[in-house]
Amino acid sequence: MKNHISFSELKIWNECPYKHKLVYLDKVENFVGNEHTAFGTAMHYVCENAVTNEKTDLLYAFNTKFLEELKLLIEKKVEIKKDLVEAMKGQGKKMINHILPALKSRFKNFEVVSVEEMLYEPIDNKKTKFKGYIDLVIKTPDDKYHVIDWKTCSWGWDSRKKTDRMVTYQLTLYKYYFAKKHDIDIEKISTYFALLKRTAKSNNVEIFEVPNGKIKTKNVLNLLDGALYNIEHGKFIKNRLSCTRGYGCEFYKTEHCK
User: Fold this and answer.
1) Which of 27, 71, 98, 152 gets the highest tally of CB atoms within 10 A of its CB?
2) Domains of the chain
3) Hey, is 205 helix, strand or coil?
């Protein structure tokens, strides 16, 4: 019996159950990170500081955290592209001053309810719990809650990605389990992605709402239930369609998956 499952784990299982086995059961080391993940971690750290203490030196916070993450990658023998790192430093410097203004422009008056809030809630009729971390929850004067997830990217997302089922399911689950955790009417909760765009010439922070209705919630809970059933019963079928689709699979044609 699994103790918990996260959205990231569900997403990998949906991509390929056999890949899920390699990563979560066999503990085969896969992707350890790169400059982009280091930048993303640093920007999340900046966002957290920006909304909790407006007096924070955001540039110092960004540079310090970015350097820490890069050092961790170097220790793991990841080759770092210096030109890309320098470009990211400039992009981060430009972006950080748009974070709080974007929130204030989108939501006007609001109070911060939580940052990096942990979810560890029982999944219906199971001992397994759903585990996740919500980047930011704010509350507006109309007694509505707004769940926000920061996403770093290059120029932005097209309409296809903004409505992608597996991308937006993350917020569907966050909304559902946040409501259960706090016993809040789910209709009082809205969800958003906040894009932190490195290379955009304008609108560097874009906040857009992601609809999560009853049917969508039912669908993702069914997906979650199906994943747990198959994991617990040791059913790990290879999804050959995902081997080279999109970014491809790091295990494709390796000793782990031939």
Assistant:
1) 152
2) 4-233 (3.90.320.10)
3) strand
CA-CA distance, 253 to 258, in Å (whole number)?
A: 5
Identity (one letter) of the amino acid at 206? E
In this model, does residue 100 exceed pLDDT 70?
yes
C-alpha dihedral, 35 to 40 to 42 to 47, nearest 10°: 160
Contact 166, 11 (CB under 8 A): yes
Mean pLDDT of 202-208: 95
Residue 15 neighbours by CB under 8 Å, 6+ apart: 239, 242, 249
CA distances from 136 to 24, 191, 202, 223 (A): 27, 10, 23, 25
- The confidence score (pLDDT) of residue 250 equals 84
The distance in angstroms from the start CA to the end CA of the chain is 29
Average pLDDT over residues 82-91: 98
Name 76's Cβ contacts closer than 8 Å, sequence gap at least 6.
32, 33
Output the CA angle 133-134-139, nearest 5 degrees: 150
**Residue 8 near residue 230, CB atoms below 8 Å:** no
126: pLDDT strictly greater than 90: no
pLDDT tens profile 4-32: 999 999 999 999 999 999 999 999 977 88
3-state helix, strand, coil in the chain (%, to 5): 50, 20, 30
Query: Which residues make Cβ contacts (< 8 Å) with residue 201, sequence separation at least 6?
Result: none
Q: How far from the centroid of its chain's Cα atoms is residue 255's Cα?
A: 30
C-alpha–C-alpha distance, residues 169 and 176, integer Å: 10
